[in-house]
Design goal:
244 residues, alpha+beta, Rossmann fold, formyl-coa transferase, domain 3, two-stranded parallel ribbon, 9 helices, 38% helix
């Protein structure tokens, strides 16, 4: 019988920091994953413990264990799966590193297509709630301009010029403060503008799309997300949820 053994640490099993204490924010800080989480000229934000502990750690450990189990079935040999959060969170940076190599991303924050444009950001609304935009592709940006009444505004014609992003973002900030989040949702949600309201967990649980997919359930009076992903051949059974 082959044994597969998995272990997850922050810094990894070897290296100068292997025996040092740390938490999610430290691991993603050292791996480079925290660098882009913030506005130009401001410190990086403190994100929820998802990118490191869950994304770069637990999920990489789970995938590694599955791969090692498949290997053991083929070879009859077990092995140790060493999942370090610094390794996993660095590996998740490969998309951005590839974009940087292609000239679409730079080290300076606020100057790249996923952290600088006015059409890829969050905005405060009249009720102090927030909305998100991700109108990356030209056809989505064109529709966004149309929906916002900016189709004929020459300032927004070249929305892909980094030199214009700060000014256009300021204009968007003023614009989105003119209506509530739900009013903007009524105009933009469900269209190909790549829009979504920013919801807290309770709001997310009651959103029609999330309800239709039964993403959240109430278990003993507490909101919990259903397991993911979903399997066509082995549907989820046995989860006890409150009748509500």
């Amino acid at each position: 019988m082959a044994l597969v053994f998995g272990r997850m640490t922050g810094w990894g099993q070897h290296g100068p920091l292997a025996q040092a204490a740390g938490h999610d924010i430290n691991y993603i800080a050292l791996s480079g994953a925290l660098w882009y989480a913030g506005e130009p000229g401001s410190p990086p934000i403190t994100p929820p413990g998802l990118v490191g502990d869950i994304g770069g750690g637990a999920l990489y450990l789970a995938v590694g264990l599955l791969a090692a189990i498949l290997s053991a079935r083929e070879t009859g040999k077990g092995q140790v799966v060493d999942a370090a959060i610094v390794d996993g969170s660095a590996h998740m940076m490969n998309l951005l590193l590839s974009l940087r190599a292609a000239g679409h991303f730079v080290t300076e924050r606020g100057r790249s297509i996923l952290d600088g444009p006015h059409w890829y950001a969050t905005y405060r609304c009249a009720d102090d709630r927030f909305i998100s935009l991700g109108s990356l592709e030209p056809k989505f940006y064109a529709l966004l301009r149309q929906k916002l009444g900016l189709a004929d505004d020459p300032a927004f014609t070249n929305g892909y010029d980094p030199e214009s992003w700060q000014d256009l973002r300021r204009r968007f900030e003023v614009l989105f403060r003119q209506r509530t989040r739900d009013e903007w949702s009524g105009l933009l949600e469900g269209t190909d503008t790549c829009f979504a309201p920013v919801l807290d967990p309770d709001e997310a649980a009651s959103h029609p799309h999330m309800v239709a997919r039964r993403v959240y359930v109430s278990v003993n009076g507490s909101i919990q997300a259903m397991p993911a992903p979903r399997f066509s051949g082995t549907p989820l059974t046995g989860l006890t949820a409150d009748p509500s």
